[in-house]
Amino acid sequence: MTALRLILGDQLSGKMTSLSDLDKDNDVVLMAEVREEATYVKHHKKKIAFIFSAMRHFAERLRQKGIEVVYIKYDDDDNQGSLFEEVKRLASQRKVDRVIVTKPGEYRLLADMQKWQENLNVEVVLREDERFIASTKDFAEWAKGKKQLRMEFFYREMRKRTGILMEGSQPVGGKWNYDSENRKPLPKGGVDVPAPTRLECDDITKQVIELVDTCFSDHFGSLEQFHYAVDRDGALEVLKAFLEQRLANFGTYQDAMKQDEAWLFHSHIGLYLNTGLLLPDEVVKAAEQCYESGKAPLNAVEGFIRQILGWREYVRGLYWLKMPEYKRLNHLQATRRLPEFFWSADTDMNCLKQCISETRANAYAHHIQRLMVLGNFSLIAGLLPDDVNEWYLIVYADAYEWVELPNVSGMVLYADGGMLASKPYAASGAYINKMSDYCKSCQYSVTTKTGDKACPFNYLYWDFLIRNRDTLSNNHRMGMIYNTLDKMTNDKVEAITSSARSFFDKLDSNEKV
Ligand SMILES: Cc1cc2nc3c(=O)[nH]c(=O)nc-3n(C[C@H](O)[C@H](O)[C@H](O)COP(=O)(O)OP(=O)(O)OC[C@H]3O[C@@H](n4cnc5c(N)ncnc54)[C@H](O)[C@@H]3O)c2cc1C
Ligand code: SF4
Fold first, then answer.
1. Its pTM surpasses 0.90
2. What is the C-alpha to C-alpha distance for residues 147 and 141, in angstroms, rounded to an integer?
3. How many Å lie between the centroid of ligand 2 and the Cα of residue 269?
4. Which terminus of the chain is more solvent-facing, meaning fewer CB atoms within 10 Å of its CB: N or C?
5. Kind of pairing, strands 69-72 and 98-102?
6. Which residues line ligand 2 (CB under 6 A)?
7. Which domains does the chain have, with CATH numbers?
8. What would you measure as the largest C-alpha separation in the chain, in angstroms?
9. So what's the pLDDT on residue 189?
10. What separation in Å is there between the alpha carbon of 440 and the centre of ligand 2?
11. pLDDT digits (tens, 9 = 90+) for 316-356
12. What is the distance between the alpha carbons of residues 208 and 189, in angstroms, rounded to a whole number?
């Protein structure tokens, strides 16, 4: 009996179910860099370089354990271009009896794989992905019969189930959530931000960077200063540095933004978690350990653990529960196409310019940049969900549809009509000004509400509420905001809508805004 065990680019863990019960004497592992996966959207160059290099390192690791690996490189002359064709070729060359693969993280690929058996004439076994703390079945059971699927309640269940930060049946410290102590701007006098962990490129990574530079020259993003980890040891080093140097301040400055400081106190491990170089339970336990040993305070540790044990598990559960319909949702019927400056960063709005430039350089932006600058603009400018989703899927090294889509369609665009968020995360320039120093270097005035010089976030925020009144005003969490709007004079409302109209006219005719 020979089994072909397929490992995908985001399945780089010895814990994959596709590798369990592997028979070294008979089985063969297949890994392939294929055009179909690298280009179904035009991923950021750094993202492709990271995944190909991490795949090549993982293949080496398997070989060192005596496992036979057939590895197809992107520029191999006979590369078949798709996973199915590579599986088909190897299955017939080696007369395999079974193809074993752990279910992929994206619906489109799972739907494709479900047809493979019929087309290959070989049994295709699709195994569950057990890297997550909750299975898709666990999530579906939790969601059953609930009118609202709020992350906070799912998270509490996960705390109880895992015993993380628990004292018996009660949360450590008496509260589930310490956000009232978190989310502060950086102090006026400044704060020392530890440099992010920067790892040297080895020969494998250098070769991959050259390949990406040649084969993906028309993709977004820069390849310069590639310093990601590309194997498990490197990813563990990044995690260790975070726990020792930044975790203690993670909660307090979680939402802060600063000009030319892309990394701040975040962990920068999303890309490693999502490819299997790190596992969520080990990260959560390591953070809990930092609290128990007094290395980091509870507000920081709880805030960090919530992102992984709560949000990350929750969005994955929601994705598999609601796909494929979720991808088609557009509750606010937004239609404006993605502005060109999302690629070029050529805008006078300094907050957007900063976040897009950093994204282009690093394939990274932290959560609040994604949510409250880029996402907030996408929401209040009424951008088309398909365009926004594609952009986020392309530009971040940690982006895979299972995690990107609920964050964009649910958290940012309210396109799911409130399945994920109880109200849209819309905000005016005042929020960005409070949480960053971006406005100081901006050509627009954050304190001016309407007119050419006014911060566009200010009038777009109210214009968004006006445009979507029919859909949003029934939401009880929006009541106060609509009351404020209703108290505005007609002149003020007219000034808002006419400022928004001229902004959109410029945007739609590709003039610089
Ligand atoms: C519009 C938008 C799009 C996003 N797209 C992605 C994406 O494609 N891939 C992705 O992994 N995360 C995504 N996120 C969530 C979050 O922004 C990133 O996980 C985080 O910025 C990664 O940086 P970090 O590792 O430094 O995270 P930290 O801030 O240090 O957080 C630690 C970890 O918590 C997890 N996490 C935090 N927030 C979320 C969340 N909302 N959903 C899921 N996991 C979370 C991540 O694994 C992250 O690595 C998105 C958020 C928004 C608002
Ligand atoms: S003034 Fe407005 S556009 Fe400029 S940086 Fe501040 S929030 Fe952004």
1. yes
2. 13
3. 29
4. N
5. unpaired
6. 349-351, 429, 432-433, 438-439, 442, 444, 446, 455-457
7. 3-127 (3.40.50.620), 136-194+246-322 (1.25.40.80), 341-508 (1.10.579.10)
8. 80
9. 85
10. 8
11. 999 999 999 999 999 999 999 999 999 999 999 999 999 99
12. 42
